[in-house]
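Ticket #273: bound-state structure for orotidine-5'-monophosphate.
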Amino acid sequence: MTTQELVAQIRTKKSFLVVGLDTDLEKIPSHLLKEEDPIFAFNKAIIDATHDLCVGYKPNIAFYEAYGITGWKSLEKTINYLNEHYPEQFTIADAKRGDIGNTSTRYAKAFFESLNFDSVTIAPYMGRDSVEPFLAFEDKHTIVLALTSNQGAFDFQTQLIDGSELYKKVLETSKTYTNSDRLMYVVGATKAEYLTDIRAIIPDAFLLVPGVGAQGGSLEEVCTYGMTKDVGLLVNSSRGIIYKSQDEDFAEASRDAAKAMQQAMQRILEDRS
Ligand SMILES: O=C(O)c1cc(=O)[nH]c(=O)n1[C@@H]1O[C@H](COP(=O)(O)O)[C@@H](O)[C@H]1O
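RESOLUTION: The complex was predicted; output attached.
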């Protein structure tokens, strides 16, 4: 998917919501456990109930890998279902990969070719040759961790290196990578006060913003400091949308939560137009 197609979808739906498919067999409604593939059954119901309110889905790969081959099959069914029934959706493999060049190429093939995701999350710690193999794929997007939502972000990401925070070095250096126009960045919603500095370095790049809802980040603050003329934000919520009910009505409950987020986003977009 091109960035222009993503922006067009955001404008049409008046939403920049990404629903996180962090599907955990211990948290899904128990009546689904008798299904042949409970993870896929859950994801399909959530996707069918929310697709008109969001612009993307982000399965976190850990939740699938945890179940071995069975989980990987559920992941494959989920991305195939999305690509077949809702091809307009921006799909994110939240895998946080990155390794020496030839290994990164295999990761890129796994997520961009075998599974046909639009994007993948990447840890930038190993530098240029670990990121550029992902950037070689046309119309695919590489989402680099810049400033993460968790407390451990302060261990390294905000530490000074030659007078500048490490996350700023990540932003500045990654701009010099080949095909850097295919980069997006993760900035946690819990770090909204850093967004002005971040936008000074990357004024236009799309940000994937997790951490609203369960982690306590504020949608309004993220938009105040992080929004661009093309919106430039993909705000993710996982637990805050998918686990609203343990009963038969779980999909409608997730729709209500997605609707509340979409309406808040629509208000913000209308206020700014
Ligand atoms: O890359 C991510 O998506 C990510 C980065 C980050 O800094 N913080 C963060 O929470 N995430 C992911 O975003 C999702 C957040 O889930 P909820 O807190 O349930 O909305 C999880 O899949 C996390 O792994």
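RESOLUTION NOTES: The chain has a mean pLDDT of 97.
TICKET STATUS: resolved
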